[in-house]
Amino acid sequence: MNRDTIQKILIGLFVTACIFLGIQVVDTNNVLENAPKTEITAASSGSRMTYGRFLEYLELGWVKQVDLYDNNRNAIVLASSPELGNRPQAIRVEIPVGASQLIQKLKEYNIDFDAHPLPQKSLLVTIASNLILPLVFIAGLIFFFQNSDQSQNGMSPMNLGKSTARYDQRPETGISFDDIAGIDEAKAEFEEIVSFLKEPERYTLVGAKIPKGVLLIGPPGTGKTLLAKAIASEANVPFYNVAGSEFVEMFIGIGAARIRDLFKKASENTPCIVFIDEIDAVGRERGSGVGGGNDEREQTLNQLLTEMDGFKENKGVIVVGATNRVDILDAALLRPGRFDRQITVGLPDRLGRLGILKVHARNKPLDKDVSLIQIANRTPGFSGADLANLLNESAILATRYKKNVITKNEVNEAVDRIIGGIAGSAMEDTKNKKLIAYHEVGHAIIGSLLQNHDSVEKVTLIPRGSAKGLTWFAPDEDQMLISRAQLLARITTTLGGRVAERVIFGETEITTGASSDLQTVTRIARQMVTRYGMSILGPIALETDNNELIFKGEMSNRIDAEVCRIVSHCEQLATRIIRDNRVVIDLIVERLLDSETLNGDEFRELVEQYTIPPKNMA
Fold it and tell me: pTM for this one?
């Protein structure tokens, strides 16, 4: 019997019960309307009278006959008065509760009265009024609670303590280990877990135990969830998938109940994998929330700790967690015995980016001029999700331009869109456009002449996002560590735009376009002083991770003075480079105003012909 059939039956029962109750009310009214009286039935029975007025009629002798109904709560009075035209009329009177002396008064005034008993209810009406309606009401509540839209997500009041994890007996995610690249170390760890599940005897032979928990740590978009999908497909065991936020509710105890229910179900289907995405939502360090140790989230965490490694051991249940905020997780959650392995899934290097691009380029027709190696070199800092989005944007652009293959132009435009934003309309040839051109060339010329800075990739006057012009630099290799010379080169290059405005147009023509540049150079210089020990103050860490000064008082003034000294030194160097290379700057600006964009090769060709290399930085 399906849901619609049950619903129709309940509605039918409810309507039937209402009809029975309506019959009961109609029967009572019929008793009043169709009372067997000789004079009353011949008279009109539509008029009404208050009880006080009825007593006045009684005292004046205008009442001829009274018939009482409904346990003396209602009466039909036959009265004749001048108000009624001295003609007998039947009038209905409602008798209030407590009028117990009415019968005595009727006897005193010698009024002919009669009391009519309540009609006998049929057995069917009695059952309908006392049994059917309550049962229909209760059954309706249960039915609609269990079949509401929310119950499908575990939000029904009947299912508050049930786990909301999605269960797959044999998951088919469509993702295998062959579809994962750029994170070979993490993939190898998961391949070993799959081997544990498929061939446990190989490991038990030497006394090895399968890990209870694996925690994936890394920035967003690096492939943590993708690894979970791959192990779900490759392991061929039952798989439970749930988000950490689904355990935490406003009702105390609901999260802990859901944890218990999840592990109870998992223990009935061992061996199995439980994947908890964004586990930091429930695993945050205890004692930092509202309510001390008694708030809902901490009770949920306590239950999770107990289930993973408590007095009662769960064998064969592997918990895979993923988070990008490992720094806020509780220490008890991270210890061996709960999460035996912590796998860092970081941003891919150049070879890793190349492998990821090859995976996502399988089903995309690329033109022969598209080089995945060049794309990998141009996208340092891109995550796997960024690279997948890059090729997808390229395919969308190729479709927009009605092409059958993806060419280099679409790839370059997609990279620019992701880094800088959507391109705006080209600016008109005005003073502002010329000033922006000198600003961007100032960045580019200094960055190309400094030995420790990245190479120029592109200079453009096409607005993107909030920027009116952009200069891109591409490193020759992935930089794991940054030297003091490289930091000073970055500060000098970042100041190049503002310095070019001042040298070319004068002090009064400096614009607000360098506001973000100034924030960047201040941040880098302060980190050199307080974090990296790259100043005359010595190799001392002067700030905590929360940007709080360790030493107060005079040390704060010394830090500010040293930051100003570093920035001032870089500004002087930038000014000297701009003044020494004014000829090539003017030439590049003219070329840039004509073409709107210069790529790195065109820019370097002009620079090599006319520039003067600067002296080494101090």
Answer: 0.68
